[in-house]
Structures are given as structure tokens and as C-alpha cells.
Write a structure and sequence with these properties.
The complex is a heterotrimer. Chain A is an alpha+beta fold. Chain A has 19 helices and 36 strands.
Chain lengths: 800, 173, 288
């Protein structure tokens, strides 16, 4: 009994994997002492602002910067002409294309960067920006990706004239970027030919934007005396930025320091390199002073990495019992004017090929065409894990479409098609190997929790009552995510494999410092990473300092996005910790004059097997590491691990949404949302729950109101918070969360990562619920967003 | 350029004097001249609330206040909450209930919640959501923010408090 | 994000404010709550050379009952209205309206006078003022004049205010016992302008309507008083049929502008829906 209490006490003090450790990040944030990029001040710092094109498509006849330059307090006004000698007026994108840093004779999307004004403060800069005079010759714009492939469509990219091959193969038209295909086309087509039932559905995943509360920005500081460049930057991938800056500037990486300090939300918005970063760096080098650039909210919403804009056609082939035999998908991907999609190099459609979902589908084929339009660049962002939002949306909608066609209950059709527990690891027809999953019990748990049968009964009663003022919808998703990019054989960013890293150094007093190649933007790495080390190396989490984001000290990593931190860096952390533990074992054995095999590891110490009175704590071992180590072993206690994952991880979930739609106004109220997530080993339940809440809220916003439409002239609509739907505490529903645990067999601690799942999985759930509300009237699909206007329009079309 | 004006006010209990153009926004004066970087800038259309400060006893968005309007005012920002190393119950509540993730909205949230609880020391969940609707958050979905405010309200009413996130949950839950 | 340069004036008295207005004419703009004007100036859609701040002018705040009227100082903020027991007791419609305007921080600065005199068809108080048969007190160098709400709202950003005038007070007849009222506003999210909204004031006598007023927000260049719709209820029980007829008449005068909130047909339909919703709620609040 006493031993149990003592163990519990030691376990508590360790704060290892599984406990809801309060966050180490909080003290500075709750006292207003965070260090975000716009908080950074350096002596002599100047402020830069972009001058942007009001037109979507235009030639630049001339730029007159003289009035701007003459304003007192203005230090420089850069245009493409100034960047040309440095060959920096264009820069490579992460998708193998190029993007104009400052418009070179032509603008191709509204708000494209044309000039960069640097002044003593932001007030002077704002005045000077108004004084830059640009003479435009407006050209016709094309904002419809299908129209962009018409033979007489405007040429958006004259710089690619004559280039019939792009980074991803042949281009069939001047506005075509790539065609990417995966799967067995012939087998799939034959399965369709043979099928008893086929369904086909067009669906649009509209263009949206992650809109983190902190906009993008940097402080670039070139020290002309030392020849060093330091850049504080809102980046989810500081090492990649360093490599890119090195490539662009020819400054060796050893003289470049990129620092991602505190980041106010990333969500994929802060992965790419934006023109403002480049111009700030150039200005700093030219002027020899620090230059700060912080974009405004509307610049953020209308020029930085958008998300989605996928026009998808899904088809399923099945037998009359709803058992699916094939999936066929065609996608038109609108990439905007420059392909800056932040995908792994080999996959221009990211991991869209996870679209067979949680279902055992023997045949599948996907074809994606990427197209240029006069819109701002991006594509992969917004908690999507590289197009996985699109893939999961597609399959979860299609299975509902099939269910409706056959009159099979939407939960039942999923049960009939689930990959069974004994089929894992499961090879999909599109080349992925799902590590583990257990879908049916997850679905059953959720259906029981919401009393699904009663909900369907209530829905039937309401449908039978003509006086009922609302339509009730029940949405289900049972999704599988793919995260943890990724194995270097298939995943690289600009040629760098997507491994990640951890180094740990234990000090003589038993406390430790550790650094990783990832960078938290609110996910709580400072807290959770220490928990992994605590469990694996027996050092109390409170004694572990975790640092990320400074390329001068952190080992190389590919950053944090696509829920890759836990699966990749988390594995490196566990392995580095085990290296520490193994060296500690040898030192402990040496101190106790026994063989290392005679020792067993017990939470925070090594006991001699069979004689627990003889033990050495990690604290004692740490001290000894600096003065008394066995022969043949170096002093010190530190380890580094670079982890190249053998596979992705596949977290999954089962969600149910119940909502009620006012027939007369289209107003939709989410009555209940129950989310069960399985992310394998759960490191910190409190933090997981917080991530789920956040992802569900984003999903709610996307499904129910977010959009960035364009008018025919290429003017982007709704690019401020007046229109862009960010729900407040009033609109946001109450979330219920639940979990199962199916560890990843290939991950050192069985953890899969979770933060993107609620975003990926909830959007089709809301969509399915809204459509379910109308499906008894024949509706098979309605595109998002489901604002009351669009829902009303649909109700009107049904003459409700 | 308009002539600059000297503006004097009390900032977190201490006197402050600044020299500003009439057009200078309070948020910029705080962040650039007075080293108060807790309140943040998240938009330019007065929607997000990240810049929220307490001005003469009401919550305001400092991005929509001219500094010249604040002569002889009393301004409280997040930096003025902890006293002598002792956290305000709201600050404690936000940590206990995991009411923050990236932290960017947090200073504005806490500053607003402070005034909310002064106006209504015993708010219902609906009242909390309604009276916090001027502060946007992209990370938390607000659920734990509500709990954090309820935690603080209870503590400030002298009631016992307990976190809904115990360190070691019951086995099997 | 940064306004253009301007001169700032903070008069301490109404006389001083009026004199400044006279001095600077159309180069000057009055600064009340500032949450309509300053955002426009920050986006550089407006750039007045002079701002005359009313926040330090004595005598423009205060809520009191004078005879059978509620008098509200023009610089009274929306939150002050929400928290006022006097307003809740005499004209609860104002509390309900103020609660649906913007968000808590904006409401701590935004004023009822500013909301009314800006002339923005999206602002909420104008329709409510029409339904309440309010009167506005305007001061100028020539003295004071009273303008009824029904003559005040002329078009988009166009009111009956003359150059050199400052609104100082809003006068509202206290609602008779048994009057029911409601402001029903359809909006996309907190802080948004109305897609459509309806203000309704109803007095029933043993179930029969003796007095009615219906006014609409943001479905025309200015707030609309739906006189025919209100008249159609007089002498009748306000049942489903009467409500739908009133809504139909209200919709027939709508001329909304299409925008991201919706097209003309949707906004008109929503105006009808809000009239129905407001009428149904108002009926339940009539205690006669």
C-alpha cells in the first residue's frame, strides 16, 4: 500500500505521458509577456509596407516612386527593378513554380505586391504608400478554373511561355499546371462497368483561408559588420526558411539565423515564404538596418496561402447492398496565379489519395488537374494535412450519396464498408499503408452516446409533421486522417527529407534542456514534449526546458504543420530519451558495481533487479555523468535523434452532428456535436481536448460561413473580418469529446497526432447533416458554406 | 503633419506621458512607445478584440481609440493584473482550465473578462458568451475560456474552486 | 490601418463645439463613439482635416424621464442603455435593440446619437426611432430645433441634419402600459449589420390592436417606416393571418441592395420573416 502511494507520488511528480499537465507556456501569455514578431523591437528598426495592385490582371506601364521617396522619413521604395540585379524579383515556390516577389511588368491577382516602402515608422510608411503612382493597363481576368482552360483564355503566365513541361510533368494549356494521377484506371473502370449501382456527384470545396489571429510578418536584420542575417519571422518551418533564404541570397546558412518566436496561430498559413519576407530582408541588407514588415488582416486574407478551391467529381461503384467496389475521382484544382502550394515535392495534390477513407475499397483511381487563375496563390493550408480535408470530404459525402441512392441508413452503410480491425496494416488501392485502426467500435460508441435510433425517430416524426418549422439533420463522419509527413522516400520539401529531430542535454543537477526541429504555434510543445522525455528518460517534466524555433540552436527539422509534430518529432524525442536512458543505465550500473542487465528502470531510477533498496535516481546519474563514468564511455549525458518515419500515421474518428434548420429563414442551429477521436497514445488529455475544440470550431466556421468568392473582374470579396466568418463565443456550439485508443504500431510511443482531425472530420459532418436535413426531398448535395442565404435558396428551390 | 500633443494618463496605476500626433491610435502608443505589448493587433476593422484594454472603467478596443482622447484617463492592460508576483484569479483560471493555446487573444480576453466580472460577478454561461463576443479566438473554440471565467468568478466570490483538468485522470476515463 | 493626418479638437462645451463646426465647415467631422468614423478613416475611405470630439462636451449624457417622455443624451453609449433600469422600465425596446448592436467593446463607446445621425442604413436605432415616434433635439448656432424621426432619415448617409448642427438629445414617448415591442434582427454573426431587421411596437386592448408601428432596417437606402403594414393591424386580432398580411405589406416597400449577405429577393423575404418574428414576440409581451 505504502509502495503504491509512493509510486503514485513519483508518477505525479514526473508528469509523464498521459497526464493533463498544465502548460509551461501559459505564464508568459497570461501576463502579456509573450514575444510575438510584432513585439520585437531592434535599435534603428524601420518599417516596411507593401503597395499592392487593385486589379486582378494588368500590365504595369510605369511605377513612379519619386513622391513617395521624397516624403520625410522614407528610406527606400523597392520595385522589381531594384530586385532584378539580385535576381530576387522572382522566387521559387514550394511547388516547383516561381512567384513574383514584386510584380515584374504585370500583375496577376488583386492585391499582388508591386512595391515595398520602407520608412521610419508605420505612420510615415502608410502615407508614403499612398504616394506611389502605378500606371496599369487592365487586362481581362479569368477566375473560373474551367474557363481558364478555354483556348482563348487570357494568358496568366507569359513567363512560362513555351514551357510545355512543369515541375509535375506535361502541361496541356498555357494556364494548365499539372495532371497527377494515381491508382489503376483500367481496373477501376472495369469495376464501374460491372457494378450493380453507381453514383456520381459534383462537389466544390470552396476557397477559404486559415486566418490565424496573428497575421504574418518578420523583422529582418542584416548586420553589415558581421555579415550575419537574423530574421524573426512568423514561420511554421524556420529551418526550411533558412535554407530557402540561403538559396535566394547566396548567404551561407551558417550566417543566417531564423527565429520563430511565439506564433499567434499558424494553421498552415505560416509555412510558405511570402514576398514581404524577401523584400524586408533585401531592404535590411541594402539599408544595413533592421526592417519590420507586418501585414494587415486584409493582406493576410487576400494574399497569403489560401486553402482548398477544389472542384471534385466523385463516383462510387457498389452492389445493391451498398458494398463499394470502386472509387473514381476527378479534380479541377484552382491554384491561383502562382503555384505556391506547400506540398511534398512529389505530390502536387498532397495526400489526396487517402480518399478511399476508412473503407475497404478494392479499386480506385484519382486524376487531378491543377490550373492557374487570376487569384492569389496557396492551396495547402488550414489544418488540412496536405489536401486531406478535400479527400475526406469527398469520400464522406460520396458514401452518404450512395446511402441515399440505395435507401440504406448512413451509419449502416459505413459498417458494411469499414476496413476491419484484422485487416491492418491495410494497403489501399492508392498506395498507402494504414498503420492501425478500429473503426466499428468507435462508430458504435458515438451512436450509443447520442442515442442515434431516437434521433432518427425524432427526425421521421418531424418530417411527417407539415407544421414543423424546422428540418432536422443528422450528419455522420467516420474518417481516417493521414498525418506525420513523412517518410523521406516519398516526402521532401525542396529536396529535404521530411524527417524531424530532437536533442537532449542533461545537466549535472539532473535538469535538462531539449530542442526540436518543430515549432509550436499554440499546440503546447513546451509542455507535451517534456512529458515524453519524462516518461522515457525518467526526468521530471518540470525540470526539462523545451526550446524550438531558433535555427542557431535547434537541430534541423521540417517544422510543424499537418499534425506532424507528435508522429515525427515525438518519435525523435522518445528515441533520444531512450538513448539518454541507456547511457544512464550504464552509468548507474557502474555506480552500483553491477552489470547493466541487472538493472530495471523504475519511473525515475534504476533498481537492481530483486533488490530495490539498491537504486540510483536519474538525478544521481546526471551528476555522475560529469565525473564518474565507466571506462570507454564519454563524459556528459546527451543525445540527438533524427527520425525518418517509416510511414505516416493514421488517426481516425467518428463524429455525429445534429442540427435544425429554420425552413423559412435558412438559419441553422447546431443542436449537438459529438466527436470521438482516436490518436493512439494520448500524451496530454487536456491539450488534446483543447485541440479538438479548436479544430471543430474551425470546421464549423468553414462549413457554415467561410468563403472568399471572386467577381467576374477578379475582385476578391469578403476579405476583411466584416464578412469573413470567424465565429464568436455566441455562434460557436458546445462540443462533446470522446476517445478510443488504437496505438500506431510503428511509432515509438504509439502516438499518431490529432490536431488536424477535428477540422478534417467535422466539415463533412456538418455538410452531411445539412444535406441529410433535405435528403427526404431528393437533395443529394449542396455546396458549402451553409450560411442562411444559401440554405434559404436551397429551401426555396424545393418550394418549402 | 498635425502638431503633436502631450497626453498624460495613468497606465496600470503609474503615470505615463506621451507625445503623439492626433491620429495616433492608442494601441500603437501602448505597443510602440510604452512597451506595453500584451494587447495585440489582429485586424484593422475593429472586429477581433485582441487589442482590448480597460479605459476609465469600460472595455474598449484600443485600435479604435485615439491616444489624444485619453488625457487624464485610467488605463488598465494585461500587464497590470498580476500584483507582486500574485496572479489575478482570471489569470489563474485561464491556466487551470486551458483557456489559451497560442496566447494571442489572451491579453484581450482576460482584460475583457475582468470588466465583465465587475459588471456581473455571477454570470451564466450564456451571459459569459454574450459579453465576451467582442473577442475572437481561433484556437480554443471558447469552451475552455468560458470555464476559465467561471473558475475566476467562483474564486472571486469566495467559493472553492477545482480544475476540470485534474493532473491524473481516473484510470479508464 | 493608419488614418491620414488631421487636427484634433476636444471642446468642453456645446457652444465651443458648435463654433468649431462653424469654423471648419465640411472639413470637420464630429467624433462621437468613433466606431463608424474611425474605421472608415483607418481604411482611408474618409479623411477629414479636423475631428471635433464630443466626448468631453458637458451635458450630452444622461437618461431621465421628463413628463411622459424618456430623454436620452445623444452621447449615451449603447452599454449605458443596456444597463439602465430606467430604460428597461420605460422603453425596453431600446435595451433589446442595443444588445443586438455590434459587440461589448464597441457598445462601450458607440453612442445612440452617433448611431442615429450617421445616416447608415445598416444602423439599428433609426428603425427603432421610427417605430417609437421619437424626436431628435438638434443644436446649432441658431439655437435648438426638434425634428421627428419620421422626417429625419432621408437616404444613405443623408439625414435632415444641417451643416453646423449637433444632435444633443433623443426624446421618446414612454410606452403605455400593456404595449409589447420587439426588435428582431437577422444577422450572419455577432457584430454584423442586419441582413434585415424589424422594429415593432404594438398596443392591444383585449386582444384587438389599437396601435401599431413597424419599421425596417437595412432593406432600403434608409430606415423604412412600414405604415401600410402597421395600419393593416388596426382594429384586428393580431393572429397568424394578420401577421402574414402585415409582413407582405412590409416586404412590398423593401428595396434592399444585394451584397454578401444576400440578394434582393432573400433580403426582402427576410424582412418579412423579421416582421413576423417581431410581431409574434411583441404580441406575447402585450399584457392586455
Amino acid at each position: 500500500m505504502d509502495a503504491d502511494i509512493k509510486d503514485l507520488d513519483r508518477l505525479e511528480r514526473l508528469e509523464g505521458i498521459g497526464c493533463s499537465r498544465k502548460r509551461r507556456e501559459d505564464p508568459r501569455f497570461i501576463q502579456g509577456k509573450g514575444n510575438y514578431v510584432d513585439d520585437v523591437k531592434m535599435p534603428g528598426m524601420l518599417f516596411g509596407i507593401m503597395v499592392r495592385s487593385p486589379y486582378a490582371h494588368a500590365l504595369i506601364k510605369s511605377i513612379d516612386t519619386s513622391k513617395a521617396k521624397a516624403l520625410p522619413g522614407v528610406h527606400a521604395v523597392l520595385t522589381a527593378e531594384d530586385l532584378k540585379p539580385l535576381k530576387l524579383h522572382w522566387m521559387p515556390t514550394l511547388a516547383g513554380d516561381v512567384q513574383a516577389v514584386l510584380a515584374d511588368g504585370k500583375v496577376s491577382f488583386q492585391n499582388q505586391e508591386v512595391a515595398f516602402v520602407v520608412a521610419s515608422d508605420r505612420y510615415v510608411a502608410a502615407d508614403a504608400a499612398e504616394l506611389v503612382e502605378v500606371d496599369y493597363e487592365v487586362l481581362p481576368a479569368v477566375v473560373d478554373p474551367f474557363a481558364a482552360l478555354n483556348p482563348d483564355a487570357p494568358v496568366i503566365r507569359p513567363d512560362l511561355d513555351g514551357k510545355e513541361t512543369g515541375a509535375h510533368g506535361k502541361r496541356r494549356h498555357h494556364n494548365h499546371i499539372f495532371n497527377w494521377q494515381i491508382g489503376d484506371r483500367d481496373k477501376t473502370d472495369r469495376a464501374f462497368d460491372r457494378a450493380e449501382v453507381t453514383v456520381k456527384q459534383d462537389m466544390l470545396y470552396p476557397r477559404v483561408h486559415p486566418c490565424p489571429l496573428e497575421t504574418c510578418g518578420c523583422v529582418a536584420s542584416y548586420d553589415p559588420v558581421r555579415g550575419d542575417l537574423t530574421v524573426y519571422i512568423t514561420s511554421q518551418a524556420p529551418h526550411v526558411v533558412r535554407t530557402v533564404v540561403g538559396l535566394l541570397s547566396s548567404i551561407p546558412e551558417s550566417k543566417i539565423r531564423i527565429i520563430s518566436p511565439d506564433i499567434g496561430g499558424g494553421f498552415g498559413n505560416k509555412v510558405g515564404v511570402y514576398p514581404g519576407y524577401v523584400t524586408a530582408i533585401v531592404a535590411s541588407i541594402v539599408l544595413g538596418r533592421p526592417v519590420k514588415w507586418i501585414e494587415s488582416r486584409s493582406e493576410n486574407l487576400t494574399t497569403t496561402a489560401f486553402a482548398r478551391d477544389y472542384w471534385m467529381t466523385g463516383e462510387l461503384a457498389a452492389d445493391r447492398n451498398g458494398r463499394i467496389s470502386a472509387l473514381r475521382v476527378n479534380v479541377m484544382a484552382d491554384h491561383g496565379a502562382f503555384d505556391a502550394c506547400a506540398d511534398p515535392t512529389k505530390w502536387p495534390a498532397g495526400m489526396f489519395h487517402v480518399c478511399t477513407g476508412s473503407y475497404d475499397i478494392p479499386n480506385a483511381h484519382v486524376s487531378v488537374d491543377g490550373v492557374y487563375t487570376n487569384k492569389f496563390p496557396g492551396g495547402v493550408s488550414y489544418r488540412c494535412s496536405f489536401r486531406v480535408t478535400e479527400a475526406v470530404y469527398l469520400i464522406e459525402r460520396m458514401i452518404d450519396v450512395l446511402a441515399q441512392k440505395l435507401g440504406i441508413d448512413k451509419a449502416e452503410i459505413r459498417r458494411r464498408n469499414f476496413i476491419r480491425h484484422d485487416q491492418f496494416p491495410y494497403h489501399t488501392p492508392l498506395g498507402l499503408e494504414f498503420d492501425s485502426g478500429n473503426y466499428a467500435p468507435a462508430l458504435e460508441k458515438v451512436l450509443k452516446a447520442v442515442d442515434y435510433d431516437s434521433l432518427r425517430a425524432e427526425q421521421a416524426a418531424k418530417r411527417a409533421d407539415p407544421a414543423c418549422p424546422t428540418l432536422m439533420g443528422i450528419g455522420i463522419t467516420t474518417f481516417t486522417e493521414i498525418v506525420g509527413a513523412g517518410p523521406s522516400k516519398s516526402c521532401d520539401i525542396l529536396g529535404i527529407g521530411m524527417f524531424d529531430s530532437c536533442e537532449i542535454r542533461v545537466h549535472p543537477d539532473g535538469s535538462a534542456i531539449s530542442r526540436m526541429g518543430t515549432i509550436t504555434q499554440g499546440q503546447g510543445h513546451q509542455t507535451t514534449y517534456a512529458q515524453i522525455i519524462a516518461s522515457e528518460a525518467g526526468i521530471a517534466a518540470s525540470l526539462i526546458t523545451v526550446e524550438e524555433g531558433d535555427t542557431a540552436t535547434a537541430p534541423y527539422g521540417l517544422g510543424t504543420y499537418g499534425s506532424r509534430s507528435t508522429p515525427v518529432a515525438g518519435a525523435a524525442i522518445a528515441r533520444a530519451s531512450r538513448k539518454i536512458r541507456e547511457k544512464a543505465r550504464k552509468i548507474a550500473a557502474h555506480l552500483m558495481e553491477v552489470s547493466p542487465d541487472d538493472l530495471e528502470f523504475d519511473l525515475d531510477r534504476f533498481n537492481v533487479k530483486g533488490d530495490p533498496s539498491k537504486s540510483k535516481t536519474m538525478k544521481e546519474v546526471a551528476w555522475a555523468a560529469y565525473n564518474n563514468v565507466p571506462e570507454g564511455i564519454e563524459m556528459g549525458l546527451e543525445a540527438v535523434d533524427y527520425y525518418d518515419p517509416p510511414n505516416f500515421t493514421f488517426p481516425f474518428g467518428a463524429y455525429v452532428c445534429v442540427l435544425d434548420i429554420n425552413k423559412k429563414t435558412g438559419e441553422t442551429k447546431v443542436r449537438r456535436f459529438y466527436a470521438l477521436d482516436d490518436c493512439g497514445t494520448r500524451i496530454n488529455p487536456m491539450i488534446i481536448e483543447g485541440q479538438i475544440h479548436g479544430g471543430l470550431t474551425e470546421g464549423f466556421a468553414v462549413a457554415m460561413g467561410q468563403e472568399l468568392p471572386y467577381d467576374a473582374e477578379g475582385n476578391v470579396q469578403g476579405g476583411t473580418l466584416m464578412d469573413y466568418f470567424l465565429p464568436t463565443s455566441v455562434e460557436t456550439p458546445h462540443w462533446e469529446t470522446d476517445f478510443t485508443v488504437t496505438p500506431s504500431p510503428h511509432h515509438p510511443i504509439g502516438a499518431k497526432g490529432v490536431a488536424e482531425s477535428p477540422h478534417v472530420g467535422s466539415i463533412p459532418c456538418f455538410s452531411n447533416a445539412v444535406i441529410d436535413a433535405f435528403c427526404h426531398l431528393g437533395t443529394t448535395h449542396v455546396n458549402m458554406p451553409y450560411n442562411s442565404y444559401r440554405v434559404w435558396q436551397h429551401a426555396q428551390s424545393l418550394k418549402l | 503633419m498635425a502638431k503633436k500633443i502631450v497626453v498624460s494618463f495613468s497606465l496600470n496605476g503609474a503615470p505615463a506621458d506621451v507625445l503623439v500626433e492626433p491620429r495616433e491610435l492608442l494601441i500603437h502608443t501602448l505597443r510602440e512607445k510604452l512597451m506595453i505589448t500584451g494587447p495585440h493587433i489582429g485586424c484593422e476593422t475593429s472586429h477581433c478584440g485582441a487589442c482590448t484594454v480597460d479605459l476609465d472603467g469600460v472595455s474598449v478596443k484600443a485600435c479604435t481609440i485615439l491616444t489624444v482622447q485619453c488625457d487624464a484617463s485610467e488605463i488598465l492592460t494585461i500587464e497590470g493584473f498580476a500584483k507582486g508576483g500574485q496572479l489575478h484569479p482570471l489569470q489563474e483560471g485561464f491556466t487551470q482550465e486551458h483557456g489559451l493555446q497560442c496566447g494571442f487573444c489572451t491579453p484581450g480576453m482576460i482584460t475583457r473578462a475582468y470588466r465583465l466580472l465587475k459588471e456581473n460577478p455571477n454570470p451564466t454561461e450564456e451571459e459569459i458568451r454574450f459579453w465576451m463576443a467582442g473577442n475572437l479566438c481561433r484556437c480554443t473554440g471558447y469552451q475552455n475560456i468560458v470555464k476559465a471565467i467561471q473558475y475566476a468568478a467562483a474564486k472571486m466570490r469566495g467559493e472553492p474552486v477545482e480544475t476540470s483538468h485534474p493532473l491524473m485522470a481516473e484510470a479508464g476515463v | 490601418m493608419i488614418p491620414r493626418s488631421f487636427e484634433y479638437h476636444a471642446p468642453a462645451s456645446l457652444g465651443e463645439a458648435i463654433a468649431l463646426l462653424g469654423q471648419y465647415g465640411d472639413e470637420a467631422k464630429l467624433l462621437a463613439g468613433g466606431h463608424s468614423l474611425l474605421p472608415m478613416m483607418k481604411l482611408r475611405f474618409a479623411g477629414p482635416g479636423h475631428l471635433i470630439d464630443l466626448n468631453k462636451v458637458a451635458g450630452l449624457k444622461g437618461i431621465e424621464v421628463a413628463g411622459s417622455e424618456l430623454h436620452i443624451g445623444a452621447m449615451t453609449t449603447e452599454n449605458e442603455i443596456i444597463f439602465s433600469k430606467l430604460v428597461a422600465e420605460t422603453v425596453p425596446l431600446l435595451v433589446e435593440t442595443a444588445r443586438q448592436i455590434a459587440d461589448p467593446q464597441v457598445r462601450s463607446r458607440g453612442t445612440i446619437g452617433g448611431d442615429i445621425s450617421h445616416g447608415d442604413p445598416g444602423n439599428d436605432h433609426p428603425a427603432v426611432m421610427l417605430a417609437l415616434k421619437a424626436t431628435f433635439v438638434l443644436h446649432s448656432a441658431n439655437g435648438e430645433r426638434l425634428v421627428p424621426a419620421s422626417e429625419f432619415f432621408l437616404g444613405t448617409y443623408y439625414t435632415a441634419m444641417e451643416p453646423g448642427e449637433i444632435m444633443t438629445q433623443i426624446q421618446i414617448p414612454v410606452l403605455a402600459k400593456g404595449t409589447g415591442s420587439c426588435y428582431a434582427k437577422l444577422k450572419r454573426k455577432t457584430g454584423d449589420y442586419a441582413t434585415a431587421a424589424a422594429a415593432v411596437v404594438l398596443r392591444l386592448d383585449h386582444g384587438i390592436c389599437r396601435d401599431a408601428a413597424i419599421a425596417l432596417t437595412n432593406v432600403a437606402p434608409a430606415a423604412l417606416l412600414a405604415t401600410d403594414a402597421a395600419a393593416s393591424l388596426l382594429g384586428k386580432a393580431v393572429d397568424d393571418g394578420a401577421i402574414m398580411e402585415a409582413a407582405r405589406l412590409a416586404m412590398s416597400i423593401c428595396e434592399p441592395a444585394a451584397d454578401m449577405r444576400g440578394d434582393e429577393s432573400y433580403k426582402t423575404a427576410m424582412a418579412g420573416q423579421m416582421v413576423e418574428r417581431a410581431l409574434r414576440t411583441a404580441v406575447t409581451r402585450c399584457s392586455a
